[in-house]
Amino acid sequence: MAEKQQLNGIVPLWKPAGMTSHDCVMKIRKLLRTKKVGHTGTLDPNVTGVLPICVGQATKVVQYLTDAGKSYIGEVTIGTSTTTEDSDGEVVEQKSISSPVKREQILAVLEQLTGEIEQIPPMFSAVKVKGKRLYEYAREGIPVERPKRTVSIYELELLDQDEEFTGDTIRFSIKVSCSKGTYIRTLAVMIGEMLGYPAHMSKLVRTSSAGIQKNDCFTFEEIEDKINHDKLDEIFLPIEAALNELPKLVIHDTLASRVRNGAVLPLPEPYLQEEGPIAISHNEKIIAIYRKHPTKIGMMKPDRVLVFE
Q: Among residues 262, 204, 265, 235, which one has the least CA distance to residue 72?
């Protein structure tokens, strides 16, 4: 397979456990024999799930997929906390559950954590403080103040139907839909704290990212099979599929020429209050991403022009 084939699009990968997101990018590069590949938001090695991989011209929209909302199903373990806030870390604290935890208690906590919340990133994370990643400080045993971040939890649902949870430790599953930058591991810890116990996220699966669902995804084995049977085109989603969550403005031919040349344009009335990116569509193809102009009132400017040869 030659690189001159101009592979463009999004590979909806179902990431396996045991690989970093970077490992997945490197494997896709090798399988497709192309260098222009990027992922759309890091998943921890032990987490499985939806990891959209941008190839060719689609790498121009990585940031928009990274910024898009994501959904997860996770298992929260109450009674034990770990260094990494997941099952990979060493145990930090254990506390037996003294009395049954009722469903109503958990639902009340989940309700309190829905909406805008503040989180402190885990020490074992890639957040940079003073030019160094937190996991580097953690490995060296150096304490460091971690910056708080505000994230949005759109949905937080208890999936288990039990009326009460008993045992020295208890486990229950939750469904989370959230904004970029949310640490689901930390959410588990926060749930435990509000219930009065140490906690960690014992299992985690990303079920959607930028509107791409599990049913859209391919495993590495399936991708290799498609390549071997000369069905490579079947693994790609068009760029438009991954930008479905953005507001869309459909334009005519004359305006399309100006958009391709990066023109500053009037912001149509329905989009005057839109702070985020707007997808500009022509002939059912997204040809640019625009944003409200920072200084010119009522105008918008190109954030990214997508030119395909």
A: 204
Distance of CA 135 to the CA centre of its chain: 20
Model-level pTM greater than 0.85?
yes
Give yes or no on whether 70-205 and 248-305 have one common fold: no
DSSP codes, 54-107? EEGGGGGGHHHHHHS-EEEEEEEEESEEETTSBTTSPEEEE----SPEEHHHHH
Q: Which residues are catalytic?
A: 44
Q: For residue range 272-288, what is the model confidence (pLDDT) as tens digits?
A: 888 889 999 999 889 99
Rounded Cα distance between 253 and 61, Å, is: 23
- Of 203, 197, 234, the closest CA to residue 217 belongs to 234
Q: Which CATH number fits domain 3-68+210-242: 3.50.50.60, 3.90.380.10, 3.30.2350.10, 3.30.70.100?
A: 3.30.2350.10
